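To fix ideas at the outset, we first show an illustrative case, written as a sequence plus integers encoding its fold:
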Amino acid sequence: MTTNESLALRANQAAAEISVYNNISFSCSHVDLYYGAFQALKDVNLRIEKNQITALIGPSGCGKSTFLRTLNRMNDLVPGCRVEGDILLSGVNAYTEIDPIVLRRHVGMVFQQPNPFPKSIYDNVAYGPRLKGSTKKSDLDEVVEKSLRQAAIWDELKDRLHKSALGLSGGQQQRLCIARALAVEPDVLLMDEATSALDPISTAHIEELAVKLKEEYTVIMVTHNMQQAQRIADKTAFFYLGEMVEYGNTEKIFEHPEMERTQRYISGNFG
């Protein structure tokens, strides 16, 4: 092989690699997680595609929320926690090449219980942009309105922006928390059972919102509600006892799973 041919081959390989990562938000290879001596995640391999909703399902204690929290290094806050393997965000190692604070600007998170700050609605949404250095009122006004519109709650709150966020209903608080996460313009939104504490109408609002948000963001959600996963997820991963048992298109996972454990779980035989 000539030098030019070798260079051309390497260029093609690099282009192919970049092309793969252009469509991948997270690429996780051989991920193990330990709490002290206890192994909570075992050799998890998963590629999460951009602009899709990926649901993580499985019984309580199976590792799905633990895995979700590895994606923005929330487990760093747990004493004795250790992560091994590679977790790449758009091709960049999230544990060795990105500061965790910077990582969390790219990977936002919404928790099971709505957790607005004891501040005004406006200050909740403007909190992240202010931390990033934005102080001009017109810029903050624009970010607040845009984020609340993206969270489909602007019309409900536009006349109450300077009132306490704690006076909102549970469903409104959760959509406010989504707006707060979107205000720092992340690439990925993590949702850890974000609808489990809400009534059916509020849950439907969040589901509709997630489907709309995937046009601009990658959404990764933990859910115990398998019907919810079937309704809105493009891809589904089934976790059991710390292992990622099966991953694929949601329709295939629920209608034609390859693994017996997946079939038993979605049939209600355990979990």
About this structure: The first helix runs from residue 3 to 22. Confidence is low (pLDDT under 50) at residues 14-20. The longest strand covers residues 24-35.
